[in-house]
Structures are given as structure tokens and as C-alpha cells.
Design goal:
By secondary structure, this protein is mainly α. The protein contains 3 helices and no strands. Helix content is about 80%, strand content about 0%. The longest helix has 28 residues, at about 40-65. It is elongated.
Amino acid sequence: PTAVILLAQFTNGLLLPILAGVLLWVMNDANILGNHINTKWLNTCGILAITVTVILAIKSIAGVLDSLDY
């Protein structure tokens, strides 16, 4: 069971920043959202959130790699 938890943690660390970036990109696409795209303030908050997710992802992946027995 520990290996499955580590795999899930590693996968989450990889996917979360990517999906957050895709979400921010979609929220700025006028073809999809029309006049309801993000403002500069919301984009700043989104970039901050992506930065936090990247930092957490790096820590998460590093923790998984450190816990592996080579």
C-alpha cells in the first residue's frame, strides 16, 4: 500500500501545476469564455497560485524520491 500512496503523491505533484496552468490559460481564452475572461488582478492571483503549486509539487516529488529505497 505504501508504494501506491507514493505513486499517487508523485502523480499529483506532476499533474497539479500542469492542470492549474491549463485552467489559467482557458480562463483567458475569449473564444471559450467570451467577455468573461480574467482580469489582470485575477491573472495575478492565478499566477501566484500556480507558483505555489509548483513549489509544493517540487517538495512533494522530492519527498517521494527521498523515501524510495535504492
